[in-house]
User: Fold these one by one.
Assistant:
Number 1:
Amino acid sequence: MFELDVQNGKPIYEQLMDKLKELMINEVLQEHNQLPSIRILAQELTINPNTIQKAYKQLESDGFIYTLPGKGNFVAPPKSLKNSLKEEKIRNELSRVLAEALYIGIDKHEIYRLIKEIGPLAKGGDS
Amino acid sequence: MFELDVQNGKPIYEQLMDKLKELMINEVLQEHNQLPSIRILAQELTINPNTIQKAYKQLESDGFIYTLPGKGNFVAPPKSLKNSLKEEKIRNELSRVLAEALYIGIDKHEIYRLIKEIGPLAKGGDS
DNA sequence: GTACTGTATTAGGAGATGTAATACACCCAT
DNA sequence: ATGGGTGTATTACATCTCCTAATACAGTAC
């Protein structure tokens, strides 16, 4: 499914969250799709089940997935993330990064181009 | 000068980096201004000099400040950050956060508004 | 019941973070 | 050259996070 880098400095469970979010954003994983079970994924990635659980639990509390005990973990509808605590965090992060980008001299128009480039990708295909 | 939160989960040296970058971005600290000395700042914030040093060293390697041994630390010209490794990192971070924002349903136009709101602030006044 | 799912707890090791105490080297004013 | 400021580097130690490991428990489906 994907690879993780143990040496990366960044915690494994965060790398896993990022990869999974990326798959959801690119709609490889879609609304209500089931994620790999904790034990299966732990086997495939050769890491401890607790680490997977930590990533899944965090993704759930962030609103990206929902958990049905005994059944599995599933992709949450993106719209359910609107008006959540997570939205506020993303807005703050966005402001911070935008300010930093503009400070070092990245042009507004380059950012506009980025948005147009990403925008369609988040909605439909990836071409 | 500012406050740090030891309980914040986020490392003190990172909080310090964020605060200092914020001051530079908002031009409270301007090009070639001298930063507080490591020892002075350690006294004021009641934290260890080594922690300050770590923040300063990281800011220097990121290109936000430059160090003159025996003299002090100074704010680097923002333009010197263009075409650096740091620019690449900021671009990647920006792409990631933008994709996440669009995914959860934040509208493009809200982001445009954010940019216009921040843009002038990074150039001139703060009103 | 069996075999999947997620959840929770306890224990331990490795590494990051912050503190502390020192020592060294550079710059500058006197 | 001396003194007092600056940054730099090293070593040691306590604490916390991250990750692993081994278990046990609980919900769901067949």
Number 2:
Amino acid sequence: MEIDERKRKILWAIIQDYIASAEPVGSRTLSRKYDLGVSSATIRNEMSDLEEMGYIEQPHTSSGRIPSELGYRYYVDYLMEPPALEQGEADLIQHEIASKIDEVDDAFAHTASLISRLTKLTSVVISQNRHSVLKMIHFLPYHKPGQIIMLTVWDDGKVENSVVDIGEEVSPQELQTLTNIFNDKVGSVSPGNLKDAVLREVHNELIQKKSLMSHLIQSVNKLMEDQEDEAVNKVFFGGTLNMINQPEFKNFEKIKDLFGVFEERHKIIGLMPRNYEGLLVQIGSENHEEVFQDCSLITATYKINGLPVGSFGILGPTRMDYGRAVAMVKFVADSLSFIISSKSYDP
Amino acid sequence: MEIDERKRKILWAIIQDYIASAEPVGSRTLSRKYDLGVSSATIRNEMSDLEEMGYIEQPHTSSGRIPSELGYRYYVDYLMEPPALEQGEADLIQHEIASKIDEVDDAFAHTASLISRLTKLTSVVISQNRHSVLKMIHFLPYHKPGQIIMLTVWDDGKVENSVVDIGEEVSPQELQTLTNIFNDKVGSVSPGNLKDAVLREVHNELIQKKSLMSHLIQSVNKLMEDQEDEAVNKVFFGGTLNMINQPEFKNFEKIKDLFGVFEERHKIIGLMPRNYEGLLVQIGSENHEEVFQDCSLITATYKINGLPVGSFGILGPTRMDYGRAVAMVKFVADSLSFIISSKSYDP
DNA sequence: ATTAGCACTCTGATCGGGTGAGTGCTAAAA
DNA sequence: TTTTAGCACTCACCCGATCAGAGTGCTAAT
């Protein structure tokens, strides 16, 4: 059977209505609320066809229809047209991202929170370090003997510090020397390519301080591995509470499972595509986390200098306003790319 | 009316039973389950007295009784005896705190998580910086002109960094000089006492670089104020999901409000006593956050060198196992004090 | 091909009786 | 005087019956 123009219109109307009401929608409702130009009986026949084709389904005999995953998929791919954001909203978002840009983490957290307020859905930002590049490293004295502070500066503006064991006492002057040596060599390394060449070269220069150096190199190495390891990806949620308001989660078990997953951040990371360029809409069971079977996830990566460095996503029930969410995700990802790039170290 | 031994026994039994079952407890249940040596009729009379005295109440006529806040208060103050923790649990806790001690924040987060698993309640750690003392400060070059990295080391071992605007370009050598000057002066300042004297002195030494210095001083000042400001207190939750399992929260509105408060961390900070020495049990409306009217909060501060630097607490429904919770809070606060002190800078 | 009409289905809300745990009171027993 | 047995009474909760409303599928007329 072909899906003709009238069927498309009816499917569109069903989804539109179901998104708004969360109630199964019947033929009479459609003929009343939407100007389809045919009677409810005709709509009934068409709906029967649409059901047979798998685009909609009936929770039980004699109830209205709800869209199936296939129906949503068709809607997203062919029917909806993402509306442009209102200028006010757009400004708000860009302002939010830009204003906190000196504390990148804050910017992410605030953006997630803002978007979830605007959409009444849950939003997620993942910041991955995989592609960020080390720009500078400093070794500084710490007040415990045998330990020093290692501070790293990355090309996306991030600054991080950690305390590392080096097993012996070193004077501030020596640390300064070490810092200089490392920075001379560091140039532009990303987690993947530092390991051998550079480290060995540094090692040779300070062969006389062998044990110290091997400690340091180990630390740097470990830092790099940590950066590479997706476990250090940071996850920021906004509006997790909004899920409670969704009628499909009026159920304690579901809420508990859902919040359980929110706490286990790595599961979220697994769901967000990180290298896929462009926008991805995952509907219902298209994502593989059991708890999210009733949810859809709309994501896009943001990039620095063309390389994806994280992703932004909106999570909601399968019955969500895809148009608006898609528009929002696109806009946020682009804004993040633009603003973070403008802040990042010039190549 | 006096509360005699038998009444105490009955009150104790009521609370004991209610804590376990979450159901109003009746006279017959008591006479069956507890060896009180009197008939249910007698217990009924005593319960009637206890109600009149305000220690228990009846949700509705012809239901069993539940403890009132006054009842819990009496129980906590006079009836219960906090059991010692099992050795295994104690070891587990100390190990958890000690193992992550190089990343203090991680230690807090893990401890909160562990305790909530052990108690099936929610736990909170607040780390406040109010009393920590600045040990060292470093100014380091950043890759954006007009900005530098400021790194601070505190006596509790914390290391923090931030990027600050200084409005002009400064060479690494100059930054080194500034670092030296500041560190000479810093000695041991806590957020409260740095402000005037020290800063002005530094200022005089570098009067020729006036604008730069004023920027720097502003930044340091701001940092100190931020530290003083309770907004930067960090809050770590563990087991917030446990609240969902409590029968008193089988209600969507309550759950939503509760999680709303968990997200607004400053409200929690307001509830936790920060200077009170020793252990505090707040029952029901004794805390002033509306959402927590059905909750009790048991807290203690932990200290470094005798000064409170944060607090640990367990949050649960008023109907919670006070004995175990109190034992737990005491033990955790003491362990935190001990282990963090042992790590902190020697005075 | 479309529509009006109708019988039928299913959900969800409402109502009323029955059950069981619990109480307060009274009068008898200790 | 205190304790206990006995009894009438209260309420929350469960269960089944009933009813209205929304929706469907089918048939016959347009």
